Amino acid sequence: MKKRRDYIDWDTYFLAMVQLNAMRSKDPTTQVGCVIVNDLKQVVSTGYNGLPRGLNDDNYPWERDGKLEETKYPYIVHAELNAILSSKESVRGCEMYTSLFPCNECTKSIIQSGIKKITYSSDKYEDKIENKIAKKMLKEAKVECTYKREVKIVLS
Q: Cβ contacts of residue 120 below 8 Å, gap of 6+?
């Protein structure tokens, strides 16, 4: 008997984990997940977009529009930063899998923490100036960026 040939590759496996992490987000419009793995393909950390630990989700706004303090934006921790901050070990040299190309703010933390590769499944803000800034910084820092099609998980 020969080995099975229809098994999933590592990128598909970790992007599926990213989608499961995104499902933890309570954000009604945008759910982002993140998984950080080391060179042995071991998960080092995970994250999703949400409020900082210990804050009550019911006491903060989830709106996209309005005065800054009435929107979600000043309160939410992005999935990528959440994963970096939640890691119990160094992420230097690791690979990050994320469902959305990182914003310029998360990009600074990604570079500073030493992550060497990012695999993402959506670049919906590719026309925004912040996205172009993030790509410029990642290129200069020699962080490899790879787009892979989104993995769909169906839970019944």
A: 97, 98, 99, 100, 101, 102, 145, 146, 147, 148
